[in-house]
Amino acid sequence: CIRDSDExxxxxxxxxxxxxxxxxxxxxxxxxxxxAFVEGLGAGVTRRLSGPVVEIPAWIKQRLKLExxxxxxxxxxxRNVRQEISRSxxxxxxxxxxxxxLTAFTEFYDExxxxxxxxxxxxxxxxxxxxxxxRECQRGVLLQLLQSNDVVAGVVLRPVGNTLSIxxxxxxxxxxxxxxxxxxxxxxxxxxxxxxxxxSKWLDxxxxxxDLTDGVLRYKRKWxxxxxxxxxxxxxxxxxxRNESAAVRRFLQQKLFVTSGRRGLIATKLWFDELxxxxxIPRLEQYLCxxxxxxxxxxxxxxxxxxxNELANCPQAIDVxxxxxxxxxxxxxx
Length: 334
Hints:
This protein has eleven helices and 16 strands. It has helices at residues 19-29, 43-46, 70-76, 79-92, 102-121, 130-137, 183-197, 215-221, 246-253, 305-312, 326-333, and strands spanning 2-3, 9-10, 35-39, 54-57, 60-65, 94-99, 141-147, 150-160, 163-171, 202-208, 226-228, 236-241, 256-261, 264-271, 292-299, 318-322. The protein has a seven-stranded mixed β-sheet with strand order 6-7-8-9-10-5-11. A four-stranded mixed β-sheet has the order 13-14-15-16.
């Protein structure tokens, strides 16, 4: 985030650059930067950053443990989720077929996956090469979502041991150039059903960014997923703050970053009292996720007693700490 004269926040992003170039660039712009995030590079790059550096996993996994029977799986869903899925399947007349056809894999890549990813992420899209895509598809299965016998979306599933993983998805746009209503829910529902039929023990919903306020993470959480660091070592994101401006404090207060500790995943909420009361603190239970071992609230002033009482009633213990600066708060997150 780069500060303007009016404290407007701007984002400067460098992608796929040589690490030495990135290190030099960070040193050059450091005096005009509020927050620097460095992903996929070694600690040597962030040594150029003054102040405490927080390290978080680039991605965290979300997976769902399957029940013994399909009726018990449905019963384990939240009532509103069951009703929403049922309504979408009826209203939009979605159905699903599974295929391992090489032609279907190729058509899915050309007509759904590549356009969908490019459309959704624009210049920032990372599109898997076609040859690798089709090769990986042959290790799994493609679920095709049908509407009036037309393939409108799809998802590639791949078994890894006793886990079925959601690997790639793609879908058409609706007529008004918006996302197909209910298609994401339908794909996840049929993926869950297929995992049961395949005898899997877990359904892996794939990676999400390490922030409990992230929209993708919160969407997957409605299925009852556990958060996990994953079995494959992940790249790390290292970040630090250059100053303690109101823009920096506001940005940090809006997040609920997840870090890795010796006892598992830790979620931290920062509160800077001069910005006013963040509504999320007394309702922190809305962000509670299975798989988080520790929740922390780091505040620049004592929390009101009625907030402490509400936090004490959360189903999981909350570690409340004091801080006198952004730098000290980041040091406590390490």
